[in-house]
Design a protein that fits this description.
Chain B: One of its GO terms (cellular component) is plasma membrane. Chain B: GO terms for molecular function: 3-oxoacyl-[acyl-carrier-protein] synthase activity. Chain B: One of its GO terms (biological process) is fatty acid biosynthetic process. Chain B: This is Nodulation protein E. The complex is a heterodimer of chains A (86) and B (449). Chain A has helices at 2-16, 29-32, 36-50, 71-85. With 86 residues, chain A is mainly alpha-helical. Chain A has a single domain, classed as Non-ribosomal Peptide Synthetase Peptidyl Carrier Protein, Chain A, CATH 1.10.1200.10. The longest helix of chain A has 15 residues, at 2-16. Chain A is globular, with a radius of gyration of 12 Å. In chain B, helix 13 (314-327) packs across helix 14. The longest helix of chain B is centred in the N-terminal third of the chain and has 17 residues, at 118-134. Chain B has 2 domains: 51-288, Peroxisomal Thiolase, Chain A, domain 1 (3-Layer(aba) Sandwich), CATH 3.40.47; 299-447, Thiolase/Chalcone synthase (Peroxisomal Thiolase, Chain A, domain 1, 3-Layer(aba) Sandwich), CATH 3.40.47. Chain B contains 16 helices and 14 strands. The chains are: A mainly alpha (86), B alpha/beta (449). The A-B interface holds A 35-37, 40, 43-44, 56-60, 63 and B 250-255, 266-268, 308-311, 345-347.
Chain lengths: 86, 449
C-alpha cells in the first residue's frame, strides 16, 4: 500500500514542481499549490498510472465520490478504486 | 419568412456624400441629439454607418429554422438529449444538443455532400434562411461590396474524426481527395461566398467559445466603417462526434445529466451543434430598399484576460461588457437583457455574474440575464450566433428566453436569470456575452429598431 502512496506523491509532486519530501499526507491540493486545472491533470496521471477510472467532476469536486480533501484521502481513494478493480 | 422584396442593389444614394450627412444632422431632433451623439439617420455623428440586421437563419437542437427555434425558446423547451453517433458507448458523457435525424441528402446533392462537412452543411442552411429573409440578391456592385465572416472553433471535426478512423483504426493508406477542403476552418465561409457570389472581405475567426461573437463584431465594424455594404456573419460548430466529445470529456467540466446555468445544482456544460447566420447591412442601404430591419447592432468590444488558459476572469469580462456599452454610447440603465455566456460550469457562471454586477452596479438587479445554452447546449464556436436570436427576440417580440433547468438559487449568481419560464418584457437594448477559453472575450450590443 505504501507503494501506492509513494507513486501518488510522486505524481502530485511532479505536478506541483516540488520535491516529494516536501509533501505531507495531511496537505490539501491547495496547500501543495495545485489549482483546479492541476488537479484535473493529476487525476488523469493517476488514472494512467493505476489503470483506473476516477469519478471526478471539476464543477463539484467536493461532491464526487473521490475524496480529494487531502493527499492522504487521495491515496486512500485510489487504493479503494484499485481494490474494486481487482 | 419574408418574400424577396427587391432585386439587387439600388443605385448609390446621394446620401453617401459627406455634405448630405451634415445636412441631415442639422435636422436631427433634439431628442436624437441628446442620445450621446447618436443620430436617427443612417450615419452616426462621426460619419460611421449604422448597422441593420435584415436577415437571420439557424439550425440547432431546438429547430431547423428561426421560427421553430424561437418558439422552443419561448416555451422553454430543452433540445438536449442522448447523443446518437458511432462509439457513443465508449463515452462517459452521453448527452448533447444534437440536431436529430440529420440527413444531409434532404438538403444537398451527392457532389455537395462530398465537399461539405457537417459544419458547412449547417452554415449553408442557416445562410439560405437569412438571405431569403433579407431579400438581397448579390449582383454587380453589391456582390463586390459584400463578404462573409464566420466563427467556428473546430471546423470540420467530423471529417478529421472519420478520416483518422480510416487511417489509424482501419489501417487504410488512402483517404478521399477532398479531406482538406472539407475540414478546413474556412470551408463554411468559402462555400457561403461561392453560393451567393460574395466577392468582398471574407474570412473565418477561431476563438473557441467566442468565435461567433468575434466574427459578428468584425462584420459589424466592417459595415460600420464602410469597408463592406453587407456582411453575412455568425458561425457554426459540429463537434458532436466521438473525438469531439472525448476531447471535452478529458477536461472534466461536462455534465452527464443537464445544463443548469446559474443554479446552485449546476454541474457542468453540455455541448451542442448547429449554426446561426445573420445579414448585417448598411442601414442606409437597407432603408433605401425598404428592408424589414430586425434590430440594430450598435456596439462591440473584445479583450484578452492574459491570466489563465481556461479559468475565466471577472475583470476581463467586466471590461468587455463595459467596453461594448461605451462603443454603443449606451448607458448601463438602458440595458434590459443580457444573453449570458452562462455555460453551467461552476467557474463561468459565478465569474460572469460578478462581472455583470460590477459593470452595472445597482442596475444589475434591474436587468434580466439568461443562458439559452440550457436549451440548445453550448455550440462552442457557433454559440454566440444562435444566442443572438434570443437577443433579437427580446428586442423585437418582447419575449425574454429563459434559463431552463434552474433548481436552486446560488448566492454567487444572485441576478434575475429568468428561471425556467420565458417572460414578456419590453427592452430597448441588449448585450450578448461570450467569454472563451484562452481568456478571449467578445460582447455585442444591440438596440431595438
Amino acid at each position: 500500500m505504501s507503494d501506492y502512496r509513494d507513486r501518488i506523491i510522486q505524481i502530485i509532486a511532479d505536478q506541483a514542481m516540488l520535491d516529494p519530501s516536501e509533501l505531507k499526507l495531511d496537505m490539501s491540493p491547495q496547500d501543495i499549490g495545485i489549482d483546479s486545472l492541476g488537479l484535473v491533470e493529476s487525476i488523469f496521471a493517476i488514472e494512467e498510472e493505476f489503470d483506473i477510472s476516477v469519478p471526478f467532476n471539476a464543477n463539484e469536486p467536493e461532491q464526487s465520490d473521490f475524496d480529494i480533501s487531502s493527499l492522504g484521502a487521495i491515496v486512500a481513494a485510489v487504493e479503494k478504486l484499485v481494490a474494486e478493480k481487482a | 419568412m419574408n418574400a424577396k422584396k427587391t432585386k439587387g442593389e439600388k443605385p448609390a444614394k446621394s446620401a453617401r456624400k459627406p455634405g448630405k450627412v451634415k445636412g441631415k444632422m442639422k435636422s436631427a431632433t433634439k431628442a436624437a441629439r441628446t442620445m450621446l451623439g447618436r443620430v436617427i439617420m443612417g450615419r452616426h455623428a462621426n460619419g460611421m454607418r449604422r448597422v441593420a440586421i435584415t436577415g437571420m437563419g439557424t439550425i440547432n437542437a431546438l429547430g431547423r429554422d428561426v421560427p421553430s427555434t424561437l418558439e422552443a425558446m419561448r416555451e422553454g423547451r430543452c433540445g438536449i438529449g442522448p447523443l446518437d453517433f458511432r462509439d457513443v458507448d465508449r463515452l462517459m458523457v452521453r448527452i448533447g444538443g444534437q440536431v436529430r435525424d440529420w440527413e444531409p441528402e434532404t438538403y444537398f446533392n451527392r457532389q455537395q455532400i462530398v465537399l461539405y462537412d457537417k459544419f458547412t452543411q449547417f452554415t449553408l442552411l442557416a445562410a439560405r434562411e437569412a438571405v431569403e429573409q433579407s431579400g438581397l440578391v448579390f449582383e454587380g456592385e453589391l456582390g463586390l461590396r459584400s463578404g462573409v465572416v464566420l466563427g467556428t472553433a473546430a471546423g470540420g471535426m467530423n471529417t478529421w474524426d472519420e478520416n483518422y478512423r480510416t487511417v489509424y483504426e482501419e489501417g487504410k493508406n488512402r483517404v478521399h481527395p477532398f479531406v482538406v477542403p472539407r475540414l478546413m476552418n474556412n470551408a463554411a465561409t468559402s462555400h457561403v461566398s461561392l453560393e451567393y457570389g460574395l466577392l468582398g472581405p471574407s474570412f473565418t475567426v477561431a476563438t473557441a467559445c467566442a468565435s461567433s461573437n468575434h466574427a459578428m463584431g468584425m462584420a459589424f465594424n466592417m459595415v460600420r466603417s464602410g469597408a463592406a455594404t453587407v456582411m453575412l456573419t455568425g458561425g457554426s460548430e459540429a463537434m458532436l462526434c466521438f473525438g469531439g466529445v472525448k476531447a471535452w470529456e478529458g477536461l472534466r467540466v461536462m455534465s452527464k445529466d443537464a445544463c443548469r446555468p446559474f443554479s446552485a445544482t449546476r454541474n457542468g456544460m453540455v455541448q451542442g451543434e448547429g449554426a446561426g447566420v445573420f445579414i448585417f447591412e448598411d442601414w442606409e442601404h437597407a432603408a433605401a430598399r425598404g428592408a424589414d430591419i430586425l434590430a440594430e447592432v450598435v456596439g462591440f468590444s473584445m479583450s484578452a484576460d492574459a491570466q489563465d488558459i481556461v479559468m475565466p476572469s471577472a475583470i476581463g469580462a467586466q471590461r468587455t461588457i463595459t467596453g461594448a456599452m461605451q462603443d454603443a454610447h449606451m448607458r448601463p440603465e438602458e440595458v434590459g437583457y443580457i444573453n449570458a455566456h452562462g455555460t453551467g460550469t461552476a467557474a463561468n457562471d459565478k465569474t460572469e455574474c460578478a462581472a455583470v454586477a460590477h459593470a452595472f452596479g445597482h442596475h444589475a438587479d434591474q436587468l434580466m440575464i439568461s443562458s439559452t445554452k440550457s436549451m440548445h447546449g453550448h455550440l462552442i464556436g457557433g454559440t454566440g450566433a444562435v444566442e443572438l436570436l434570443a437577443c433579437i427576440m427580446a428586442l423585437r417580440d418582447g419575449v425574454i428566453a429563459p434559463t431552463i433547468g434552474y433548481e436552486e438559487p446560488d448566492p454567487e449568481c444572485a441576478l434575475d436569470v429568468v428561471p425556467n419560464e420565458a417572460r414578456e418584457a419590453r427592452v430597448g437594448a441588449v448585450l450578448s456575452n461570450a467569454f472563451a477559453f484562452g481568456g478571449l472575450n467578445a460582447v455585442l450590443a444591440l438596440r431595438k429598431v
